[in-house]
Amino acid sequence: MHMFESVKKYAKPFETVDDLDPLLAAIGDAKYVLLGEASHGTSEFYTIRAELTKRLIKEKGFSIIAVEGDWPSCQSINRYIKNIGTETDVRGALESFNRWPTWMWANEEIIDLVEWLRNYNQQTSLKNKVGFYGLDVYSLWESMDEIIKYLERTGNSGLAQARNAFSCFEPYNRNNESYAVSAGYLSENCIKEALSLLNTIQKNKWKYDDEEENSLNMEVNALVTVNAEEYYRTMVLSDSKSWNVRDIHMVEALNAVMKYYGEGAKVIIWEHNTHVGDARATDMKEAGMVNVGQLIREQNYPEDVYIVGFGTNSGTVIASTEWGVDLRVTNVPEAQAGSWENLMHKAGAFNQYLLFNDVNRKEFNQTIGHRAIGVVYRPEYEQYGNYVPSVMSSRYDGFIFVDKTHALHPLKTGSLVF
Question: S-S: 113 plus which of 50, 231, 386, 388, CB 3.0-4.6 Å?
């Protein structure tokens, strides 16, 4: 059981983020720090990432937070923390997260970080203000709305192409599934119109440049239009192809933000472990799937990228029993025997972190089951599909283990089911 001995040897206990100095030292001068989570509904994953994020901003000059969320909704946080526009209430800013699963960003845990960021930005010069951006691909209709609204307001180039794209998508009544079926099975699609819109916006983006970041906003919303079209078209035909479209889009959107911020920009990325932990170290590789962590490593120097995974042994989580239904507090059973989380728990039933480095990486190079909980979670079936075979020291550079975790606190408690 030599991996268990290695966990005992290298894992260190921690109580607060102040105890994670060695992790910050290991991050060094990296420009991309990816912070994972084993679920989208665990309070501690959010609060620990928030505290780490504050330290990275204050101590290492990070100025971008990029998350697994929709671009238009995350813009409401970005505008709030940069004091752009009229919203002066954090809860009002979070109301724009109205697409299921809303709890991923409309939760109590994120409020403290958002208020901290607004306060930090008020004391910071314009060029060093921290931004908050959503990298996901789902917001096809909302992104087109944003483009048309802006172009109608300003009379800038591209309105004809935007209206053309919109009218192509219009018959589907903002229903992703009906577009997916039509485009996937009947080959009736809007590829041409979406590409024409992106092309026009990229050519004219200098015309949209202003202090409210409209050139970036327009460019990413046009990228979403093209990539969401492809995502929904491939969704009905192939899970692995649509997964790749989504993760490749997230990196394209990230690269647009990095380019906008310019030389020396540093980004903190918050996404699920399945997106940030290098896919090449999991069974996703055999399925032909790539992910954000892999792509960022492939596009950058090794010392510029640092990936941290997160996990738990047991506790509670916010999740749903099926896609699109009410959220509930769900019990997370103790980790499966022989899994990574089980090894860490057996090494010590307390919070720990483990840094993988040149000295110890080879001690963790066996494949082991590593738990992943989605927004849909049925614990009774956990052993059949919630453990991803992983080589942990290749998948991540560091790992944070919270022995017992608690459910996130969603803002809208009206739909909470116990």
Answer: 50
Determine, yes or no, domain membership for 43: no
Q: Tokens 């480095």 sit at which residue?
A: 357
Say if CB 314 and CB 402 are below 8 A apart: no
Its pTM stands at 0.96
Contact predicate 169/278, CB 8 Å: no
**Structure-token pair, residue 299:** 């596009």
Long-range contacts of 25-31 (CB under 8 A, 24+ apart): 26/306, 26/355, 26/357, 26/397, 26/398, 27/56, 27/60, 27/306, 28/303, 28/306, 29/60, 29/303, 29/304, 30/266, 30/303, 30/304, 30/305, 30/306, 31/265, 31/266, 31/267, 31/300, 31/304, 31/305
Tokens of 86: 């009229």
State the helix-helix crossing angle for 191-204 and 214-235, rounded to 10 degrees: 160
How many domains does the chain divide into? 1
pLDDT digit string (tens) for 131-164?
999 999 999 999 999 999 999 999 988 999 999 9
